[in-house]
Amino acid sequence: MALVTWSKKYSVGVKALDDQHEALVNILNELHAASIRGKAAEVGGRLLCKLAPLADEHFAAEMRLMESINFPGLAEHRAKHSEMAGKIAEMVSSYKKGDSAVFLQLLYFVRNYESKHLQNEDQQYAQWLSEHGAR
Q1: CA 114 to CA 131: how far, in whole Å?
Q2: CA–CA distance, 109 with 10 (Å, rounded to integer)
Q3: Domain CATH code at residue 99
Q4: What are the pLDDT digits (tens) for 60-119?
Q5: Cα separation of 42 and 39, whole Å?
Q6: Is residue 53 included in any domain, yes or no?
Q7: Can you give the three-state secondary structure of 50-97, one letter per residue?
Q8: Whole domain around residue 63: which residue ranges?
Q9: CB of 24 within 8 A of CB of 110?
Q10: Residue in 30, 116, 125, 123 with CA at minimum distance from that of residue 75
Q11: Which pLDDT band holds residue 53 (cuts at 50, 70, 90)?
């Protein structure tokens, strides 16, 4: 059973961003399923290595789009992305040092991303995007 099921409530109305959001949710679900089976250590590294570049790509795409339509909350959103990117970099570093607790941190991080950032913070710009023709 998935921890989070992708639905339209997460949509920001831009297919490329929604596809990236869904991919991040899929990583959460994959890690959750592995954790339940006691296999987080076996797949966690692969998922973390998949998450880091995907998150970087996604944050950059969001920023480019928000800049192009002069989103008024750009600076605040950029700061949140910077904070999340820093946390991901810390997890990658911990993983490379052999820290097995990083997978629990990753699960918490991606779950928090879904519940806080995706459902709340990203929805703050969704209407602005729609009103300014972003698709």
Answers
A1: 24
A2: 17
A3: 1.20.120.50
A4: 999 998 898 889 999 998 998 999 899 989 988 998 898 877 878 887 887 777 677 777
A5: 5
A6: yes
A7: HHHHHHHHHHHHHHHHHHHCCCCCHHHHHHHHHHHHHHHHHHHHHHHC
A8: 14-131
A9: yes
A10: 125
A11: very high
For the chain, counts of helices (H) and of strands (E): 5, 0
Tokens of 36: 């339940």
- Coil vs helix vs strand at 38: coil
Closest CA to 104 of 44, 46, 57: 44
Q: Which of 47, 116, 123, 42 is nearest to 88 (CA)?
A: 47
- In whole angstroms, what is the distance from residue 33 CA to residue 12 CA? 26
In the chain, the number of structural domains is: 1
Quick check: is 8 in a domain? no
